[in-house]
Amino acid sequence: MASESQPQFDTVVIGGGQAGLAIGYYLRKQDRNFLILDAGERIGDTWRDRWDSLRLFTSARNSSLPGMSFPASGDYFPTKDEMADYLAAYVTEFDLPVHLDTKVESLTRDDDRYVLETGSDRLTATSVVVATGPFHHPRIPAFADELDPSITQLHSSDYQHSDQLSAGDVLVVGAGNSGAEIAVELARAGRSTRLSGRDTGHIPSSVFNSRPFWWLATRVFTVDTWLGQKVKERSQGRGDPLIRLTPADIRQSGVERVARAAGVTDGKPRLEDGSVLDVGAVVWATGFRPDYEWIEVPGLALDANGYPVHEKGVVDDEPRLYFLGLSFQRTPVSATINGVCPDAKYIASRLNARG
């Protein structure tokens, strides 16, 4: 049994990004004894640490958490730092109990309570919401180790500006939103840039941020409907479609589209068409791999891709373990700022039903 001297909570939320803060809003309304743990030094650091020119794909109208609108006109696209500041203000506005610089190293269960080890502390909870999102460790191809050491390599999560890269041409691998935006930024900074990867499609920003799109995404294309299930199946294993940039924008910026990266020849990146590129830097916009190995509870299973098996964020065989902020958790926009809100409300309702 857990020691009575350990801090005990009704609910602990792991992750203080938009998902964790959204569920925190509803837990505060339920007057629960809860705590939000976040590994960052400041609220919003996951946004602040991204590349300098990043702006959200969602407009201010679609970038708000429950109870507090984003402070800008509806059609404005916030910068990463503005979003970070909004999250910090949100914590203050609702007096959310966030403990920063606190990484949860393990989650286990002792009888009917969960035990969380943070390195400096050990605490227990009746319920746990894992709100760490779907993006954990950078996914970089194994052949990257074979590239010549003179070639600068950065994952998109570490890229901030062009000055980080060695002189010479740049290859950006991964043609989703992050890769395309970084490639265009580099080209506009005067770097000769190639963008490698398959076409992920395009949804115009005016459509993606429209009210009809969000109504369809949150009411029709859900995991509860046949249409939603088909959309989810088709989206798995594919990069997210371009939203703000169009294929024409990429061409007009001077970025050269090339085949997918396939390996290394003589220390240089080789493409699927056999081309070998002489570049000074490679930016890997190749996504992330999940990490849930620190969760050691008997009822949690991981799927073939390493993600938790759940139903709309609820783990059937773990009576009080929940997930929030996963891609297509309930809808195609579940991992977005506004899209996580109804998911958070749903998880809060399940918590409330259990008492």
Automatic annotation (TrEMBL):
EC number(s) per entry: 1.14.13.-
Taxonomy of the source species: Archaea, Methanobacteriati, Methanobacteriota, Stenosarchaea group, Halobacteria
One Pfam family named in its UniProt record: Pyr_redox_3
InterPro entries, A to Z: Auxin_biosynth/cation_transpt, FAD/NAD-bd_sf
A GO molecular function held by the record: monooxygenase activity
PANTHER family according to UniProt: FLAVIN-BINDING MONOOXYGENASE-LIKE PROTEIN (AFU_ORTHOLOGUE AFUA_4G09220), FLAVIN-CONTAINING MONOOXYGENASE
Coiled-coil ranges per UniProt: none
Top-level enzyme category: oxidoreductase
Domain of life assignment: Archaea
Organism expressing this protein natively: Halopelagius fulvigenes
Keyword terms: Monooxygenase, Oxidoreductase
Protein name, entry field: Flavin-containing monooxygenase
